[in-house]
């Protein structure tokens, strides 16, 4: 068992609980046990309720103690903060006896008592059963996305005093429906003393953002991550994005990770949380030729859009040479061992990248 006080590398490597291999039906203790077995540094539980479904304080303390004894870092989530998406999370409203803000406040308080202060959140869900672009709440026709962002900011302002009282941060994910530009603006409007960013390396590509440029944009506010690679393939609709193990897709990992490590506001090493695959490779469409989609991205520059097209072209060349899975293979069902292989390969590659970056920093230090 590892000592929690041992010297850590510049970044920790953890896993997201919702995509943890074969964790369906298992509790937090099982995931923590497996994380130690797999040599991970921590777990990013998507909900505080995953630690205790009833917010039982003794149970929460037990989970936190198990993690501490094993030398594991804990992060957790508190749900969606876009008021137009909260009906999809009735459990939080029920927790507050009809008051969603109260329910979320109880989650913040319970997490803080267990020593968990880095709290995940996002603004919407992806509707896989709906056609693009309406699979993203960004393109809802009943309420404009600008109204959703304003409502989200108002809700976060109301939650901010609770976060300040408990010394906690809500870390908004660069989720499929929101751009990194918009997440940064929300953090700056409400305040980085209570808000941070969960940088998802794969989701920014759904919004047609260059992942390196996005990493640099969000880095000053990144307090948590979801890391996974992507395959980008051309289709009649535009470009499809699929999830891949770190190092096997389109991303240049040293360029993505470096700004996060150099500029993150965290007082401790940032945790790179691997969000893997469990049921599919999560195909999402960038309908580049759709005027509605184009008009829905006022911050998108031609330079970033072309960078994404270039990544897709390079991946297509690899697939044509048989060096990477093609569209048919990416749409095929997962193999039984794939979720665990995804995790292990991602850990291996991330450690390789971190070692290389550390060596580069040492070389520069000696040169000075």
Strand content: 15-25%
Helical amount: 40-55%
Classified by CATH, the class is Alpha Beta
Number of DSSP strand runs: 11
CATH topology: TIM Barrel
Assign the CATH superfamily. Answer: Divalent-metal-dependent TIM barrel enzymes
Measured distance between first and last alpha carbons? 38 Å
Question: How many helices?
Answer: 12
**Structural class of the secondary elements?**
alpha/beta
Provide the low-confidence segments as ranges. Answer: 1-8
Quaternary structure: single chain
- Largest sheet properties: 8 strands, parallel
Largest sheet, spatial ordering of strands: 7-6-5-4-3-2-1-10
Number of domain units: 1
Radius of gyration: 20 Å
N to C succession of SSEs: EHEHEHHEHEHEHEEEHEEHHHH
Categorize the overall geometry. Answer: globular
Mean pLDDT: 95
Molecular structure report:
This protein has 368 residues and is an alpha/beta fold. The chain has a single domain, classed as TIM Barrel, CATH 3.20.20. It is 42% helix and 16% strand. It contains twelve helices and eleven strands. An eight-stranded parallel beta sheet has the order 7-6-5-4-3-2-1-10. β2 (42-44), α2 and β3 form a beta-alpha-beta unit. α1 runs parallel beside α2 (57-70), α4 runs parallel beside α5 and α8 crosses α12 (338-367). The protein is globular, with a radius of gyration of 20 Å.
């Amino acid at each position: 068992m590892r000592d929690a006080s041992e010297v850590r590398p510049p970044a920790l490597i953890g896993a997201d609980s919702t995509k943890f291999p074969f964790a369906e039906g298992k509790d937090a203790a099982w995931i923590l046990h497996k994380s130690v077995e797999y040599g991970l540094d921590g777990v990013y539980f998507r909900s505080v309720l995953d630690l205790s479904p009833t917010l039982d304080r003794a149970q929460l303390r037990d989970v936190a103690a198990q993690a501490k004894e094993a030398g594991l870092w804990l992060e957790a989530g508190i749900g969606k903060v876009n008021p137009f998406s909260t009906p999809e999370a009735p459990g939080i409203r029920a927790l507050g006896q009809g008051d969603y803000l109260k329910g979320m406040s109880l989650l913040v308080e319970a997490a803080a008592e267990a020593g968990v202060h880095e709290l995940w959140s996002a603004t919407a869900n992806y509707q896989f059963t709906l056609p693009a672009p309406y699979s993203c709440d960004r393109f809802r026709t009943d309420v404009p996305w600008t109204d959703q962002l304003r409502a989200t900011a108002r809700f976060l302002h109301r939650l901010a005093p609770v976060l300040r009282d408990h010394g906690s941060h809500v870390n908004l994910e660069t989720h499929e429906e929101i751009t990194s530009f918009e997440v940064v603006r929300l953090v700056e409007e409400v305040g980085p003393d209570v808000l941070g960013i969960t940088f998802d390396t794969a989701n920014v590509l759904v919004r047609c953002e260059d992942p390196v440029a996005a990493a640099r944009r969000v880095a000053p506010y990144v307090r948590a991550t979801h890391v996974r690679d992507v395959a980008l393939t051309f289709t009649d609709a535009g470009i499809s994005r699929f999830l891949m193990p770190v190092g096997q897709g389109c991303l240049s990992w040293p360029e993505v990770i470096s700004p996060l490590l150099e500029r993150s506001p965290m007082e401790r090493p940032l945790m790179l949380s691997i969000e893997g695959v469990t049921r599919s490779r999560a195909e999402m469409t960038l309908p580049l030729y759709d005027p509605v989609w184009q008009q829905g991205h006022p911050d998108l520059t031609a330079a970033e859009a072309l960078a994404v097209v270039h990544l897709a072209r390079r991946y297509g060349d690899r697939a044509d040479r048989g060096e990477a899975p093609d569209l048919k293979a990416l749409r095929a069902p997962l193999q039984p061992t794939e979720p665990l292989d995804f995790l292990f390969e991602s850990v291996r590659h991330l450690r390789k990248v971190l070692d290389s970056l550390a060596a580069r920093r040492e070389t520069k230090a000696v040169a000075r």
